[in-house]
Amino acid sequence: MQIEMLRKIYYIALRNLWQARKDYGLILESIFFPVGTLVIVKFSFGQMEESSYRLETQEMILGLIALQIYFQTYLMGALVLVRERVQGTLERMFTYPIRKVEILGGYLLGFSLLGIIQAIYVLVFSYFLFSEIEVVFDSHLWLIAPITILLVFTSIGISALISSFVKSEAQALQFVPLIIIPALLLSGIFYPVELLPTWLQKGSYLIPLTYAIDSLRELIFENGDLYDITPSLVGMAILGMVALVAGSFTLKKTS
Prior knowledge:
mainly alpha
């Protein structure tokens, strides 16, 4: 029974990956948007020579790299899920002997693989682009993997939840400011979360990006280990599970 379930999840994920290759607009956007953003950041902040500014610049770049992964994965998942709902693909799936958990697992696996590919692309590009200002990834490289995977997981969970409330791709795009602006202002990209008022600090930990940035800074600037970042990893996992469970309740919803 478990082998059959895993086989169905695998084929649904494979189908999603096969269909994604036809979305040339999303592919081009996923390639060039992160590159363009990070190149602008490099030439905007890379010339700062004062040590205090250099540290702030490195931390900001680290946050923007995490933001790229978070945003791109959300956008990809939300647009594809909404398209599937509008075209009736999700509704047709329920005419086959496929359970909701298998459909959800297939979508999650397929989107997560795409998101992880996107994350590797952004991280590798950033490593070479910012190497001269000492943004070091290789000190705890293996610990960056679970951070990235969980960030992708939570982004997919949020996109699944958002897709339940919209009826078109245009409406899905209207949620972008709601996702990105709080992440920019509250996750600690431009200034530490500890400087925010207490009530905003509590709100910041409802944003998955906050946990990812905390983990990356702990690893890279504080020489942290797995024990130090475990609370952040657990926080991201909980937020992702909550979003996925909430989104699954409306999986049968049609446009």
